[in-house]
Structures are given as structure tokens and as C-alpha cells.
Amino acid sequence: MEVLDRLARQLAVADGWRVDKRCCADVALATAHGLELVLLKPRRFMNLNGLSVASAGCISVSKAEIYSLGPGDIYLVHDDLDKALGKVAIKLGGSARGHNGVQSCINALQSNEMTRLRIGIGRPEGDVTVPSYVLSPFSAGEREKMEQILAQAVTCLLEHIQSRAPTEPGDRG
């Protein structure tokens, strides 16, 4: 959620978050590189996030505007145990690789075509279980690195969005 909060600040819509009960999420609307963006922070448990994402496929913004999002229009931002802390990468489609939130989105959308922004958190050490590890707060040392990691994640996301931006007037990207 911190990546989306930082992205919203960078796109000057941080004060625009609104609760949308239809998709059980906080939603902010933004524009980047000529593309309209719907930023969505589900309010459900992680393993049910897909219900919010699928419900947002058609959000009525006003009486005149409806956003219709297909799986290829969606970016999932999520942590990744298989990447070292701070490693950020874009992945196009594929399996959930054991991530319950991603699996929920794949199931709800009946597609794995979403683009993923994967943010490495590394694996737990010693006897720490994965659920305990991913739900625990970052250590002081990890927290110090977060500002740079968040900046890198937002830059990576915006660069990828820019690569999909329209090149001709009227082109949807």
C-alpha cells in the first residue's frame, strides 16, 4: 500500500482517496503519461483482494464516466519472497508463485495477464514462518531502506506505464 500512497503523492492525488463500497477499496483517480489511472487499495484480507480488483473492472466515476478494466490494464503491486529486500521488477503475467493475494486476483479475474510490480522482501531466516514474516513490521535497518525502495518502485511503475502510453492522439496505448 505504501507504493500506491507514494505514487498518489507523486501524481498529486494523495488527497483524492475515496472509499468505494462497490469494490471494498480506497480508490484515487490520476493521470500519468496521457493515461487515466485508477489507483486501488483493497480493504479486504490479502487472500481476498482479487474480489476488489475484479469489482473495480467497472467503476462508475460519475454519471458520465465508466472505467472498464481488463486484466491487461491492471498492475498488481505486491511483495515477493523470492527477491532480495529492495529488488524491484516488472513481470508480465504468469503464475502466482505461491502468493495468495496474486492468486486471488488470478481467480477473480479468470486470467493471469496482469502486469505485476514485484517488490523483494527476501525470505525469513531461521525458524520464522512465512506468514509470521510477511505480517511482521520491517526492522529498523529495513525501514531505513524503504524510502529508496519505494522511490525505485514508483519509478519502475511509471516507466512501464509510460512505455504503454499513447504515441498518437486518440491512441489508447
What would you note in describing this structure?
By secondary structure, this protein is of the alpha+beta class. 32% of the residues lie in helices and 24% in strands. The protein contains five helices and eight strands. The strands form three sheets. Strands 1-2-3 form a three-stranded antiparallel sheet. A three-stranded mixed sheet has the order 6-8-7, with helices on one face. Strands 4-5 form a two-stranded antiparallel ribbon. Helix 2 runs parallel beside helix 3.
Gyration radius, rounded: 16 Å
In the predicted model, the low-confidence regions spanning at least 5 consecutive residues are 59-66
Name the helix and strand elements from N-terminus to C-terminus, one letter apiece.
HEEEHEEEEHEHH
Binned strand content: 15-25%
Per DSSP, the total helix count is 5
Distance, first to last CA: 26 Å
In terms of structural class, how would the helical and strand content be classed?
alpha+beta
Give the fraction of residues assigned to helices.
25-40%
Note the overall shape.
globular
Q: Give the averaged pLDDT, no decimals.
A: 83
Question: How many strand units?
Answer: 8
Placed side by side, the strands forming the largest sheet appear as 1-2-3
User: How can the largest sheet be summarized?
Assistant: 3 strands, antiparallel
